[in-house]
Amino acid sequence: MKKHNIVIAGSGFAGVWAAAAAARAVALAGQEGRVCITVVSPAPRMVIRPRLYEAVIDNMEPDVLPLFNALGVRHMAGRVVEIRAEARQVVVEADGSRLTLDYDRFVLAAGSQLFTPPVPGLAEYALNVDQIEGARALAAHLQALASRPDSAARNTVVVAGGGLTGIETAAEMPDRLRGVLGAGAAVRVVVVERAGGIGPDLGAAPRPMIEAALAECGVEIVPNAAVSAVDEGGVTLSTGLRIDAATVVWTAGARAHPLGAQVPGRRDEVGRVFVDAFLQAEGAADILVTGDMAHALTDGLGNAALMSCQHALSLGRVAGYNAAAGLLGLPLHPYSQPKYVTCLDLGPWGALYTEGWDRQVCLTGEEGKALKREINTRWIYPPAPDREAVFAVANPDFVIVP
Ligand SMILES: Cc1cc2nc3c(=O)[nH]c(=O)nc-3n(C[C@H](O)[C@H](O)[C@H](O)COP(=O)(O)OP(=O)(O)OC[C@H]3O[C@@H](n4cnc5c(N)ncnc54)[C@H](O)[C@@H]3O)c2cc1C
Question: Whose CB among 18, 45, 125, 354 lies 3.0–4.6 Å from 320's, allowing a Cys bridge?
Answer without folding.
Answer: 18
